[in-house]
Amino acid sequence: MAALEAESFIFYLQPKYNILTNKIIGAEALVRMKPSENISTLMPGDFIPLMEETGDIVKLDFTIYQQVCEYIKDRKKKNLTLFPISVNVSKRQLYNPYFAEEYIETKNRYKLPDGLIELEFTESIFFEKYEVISGIVKKLTEYGYICSIDDFGSGYSSLNLLKDVSLGVLKIDRLFFENLENNKRGDIIIRNVINMAQELNMKIVAEGVETFEQLEFLKSVNCDMVQGYIYDRPMPVEEFEAKYYNIK
Ligand code: C2E
Ligand code: CA
Ligand code: CA
Question: Measuring CA to CA, which of 16, 67, 136, 147 is 20 to 30 A from 27?
Fold first, then answer.
């Protein structure tokens, strides 16, 4: 189990694009295992569920968050273009009473301007301890974080949630537009979810977009941003830098 120490992990970046301009406007940090000779590389799906169970995920999330803060600080120092980078937050953080304080304290220590870190809370987090998570999102937003709801539509999304919690971004789960053809009802739902979220001043990211048909459809329903293999897979930071170094 030594390989599951938080220090054994790094992050890859997957760009998010403005659907109209085709320009990169942000990226999501996704955990990856550091390559090692004596252990085969596992993907998040192979180790995150176990770490959720043991509680190790809390430390892992914080490690990735710190690495991302370091990365943004470094880009700032080099006067490179800055855009928001999102990190994932496990629902286990709900049981960590110091979660918001720890994250805010770290952001202050790195002297990061507001609006550059996005925290992605998976939809299911809102069905546990609703009051707690609503309070946390409110506080983090006040402290300059962009808070988003991840995997929207993958579970039992509650519209109440959008009514009560002021989130900046809604990420539509890829399951939503997997079978676009022959699914007029699905179209209507996506179209209206996007309208509703925009009226609530939220930005929309469609994730897991793989085909041009999906992209065209998402344009036609006014989706703001797209993240998916159609543009880029998650990639090591060095590769990301090489590809986007000159982006203004
Ligand atoms: P997620 O947050 O929904 O992240 C998106 C996942 O979809 C990523 O998988 C990404 O590689 C994949 N993806 C992106 N575009 C496409 C596409 O066009 N098609 C398909 N089929 N997949 C696409 P990944 O990196 O394997 O991560 C899986 C999940 O693990 C994440 O889902 C997230 O829930 C979790 N995860 C990743 N990093 C962290 C972390 O640092 N902390 C926590 N708590 N969870 C993490
Ligand atoms: Ca995510
Ligand atoms: Ca997601």
Answer: 136
* Cα separation, 244 vs 111, whole angstroms: 24
**Mind listing the pLDDT tens digit for each residue in 17-51?**
999 999 999 999 999 998 877 777 889 999 999 99
Question: Which protein residues touch ligand 1 with a CB less than 6 Å away?
Answer: 14, 30-31, 43-45, 48, 57, 61, 64, 88, 90, 150-151, 207-210, 228-229, 234
State the Cα–Cα distance between residues 95 and 241, nearest whole angstrom.
36
Residue type, 215: L
Could you tell me the pTM of the whole model? 0.95
Closest-CA residue, ligand 1 atom 6, reads 208
CA gyration radius for the chain?
18
Bridge-partner residues for 87, per DSSP?
Answer: 119
Helix 57-77, helix 44-54: angle, nearest 10: 120
